[in-house]
Amino acid sequence: MNLLLQNIREQFRSNEAVCGQVISLFQLISNKTRFRIVCLLVEGEFSVQEIADTVETCKLSNISQQLKTLALAGVVEKRREQQRVLYRIADERVRNLIVFLRKQFIENGTNL
């Protein structure tokens, strides 16, 4: 095995936990509704009703469930503003990933 491949193998071994986290993130956002929610939240903070009205793919209760899943994974966080609960991206790496994907697919003419 050449030196390059040995170095890569060592990187794989030392980054096993990171690899698992990345795979978990991709599995999490592979759901169309969750992906659209995350794409929307890159733009700012929104209530469940605003998210449901924008995503338009399912009922309010399903949006709430998807937000709960994203929150438990640490992807989104919520805060209360008077009577409203607002959601936003919690992890800047997720925001950067979505911005990158937009540039690759939307701005380059390939719609998601």
Counting DSSP H or I runs of 4 or more residues, the number of helices is 6
Distance between the termini: 40 Å
Helix and strand sequence: HHHEHHEEH
Total strands: 3
The averaged pLDDT comes out at 90
Q: Low-confidence spans: pLDDT under 50, at least 5 residues?
A: none
Structural class: alpha+beta
In the sheet with the most strands, the strands line up as: 1-3-2
Q: Compute the CA-based radius of gyration.
A: 17 Å
Helix content: 55-70%
Percentage of β-strand residues: 5-15%
What kind of sheet is the major sheet? 3 strands, antiparallel
Form type? elongated
Please provide a written account of the structure.
The mean pLDDT is 90. The chain has helices at residues 3-14, 16-29, 32-41, 48-55, 60-72, 92-105; strands spanning 46-47, 76-81, 84-89. The chain contains 6 helices and 3 strands, in the order αααβααββα. Helix 4 packs across helix 5 (60-72). It is of the alpha+beta class and 112 residues long. A hairpin with a 2-residue loop joins strand 2 and strand 3. A 3-stranded antiparallel beta sheet has the order 1-3-2. 63% of the residues lie in helices and 12% in strands.
Task: Identify the notable features of this structure and list them briefly.
single chain, 112 residues, alpha+beta, three-stranded antiparallel sheet, 6 helices, 3 strands, 12% strand, elongated
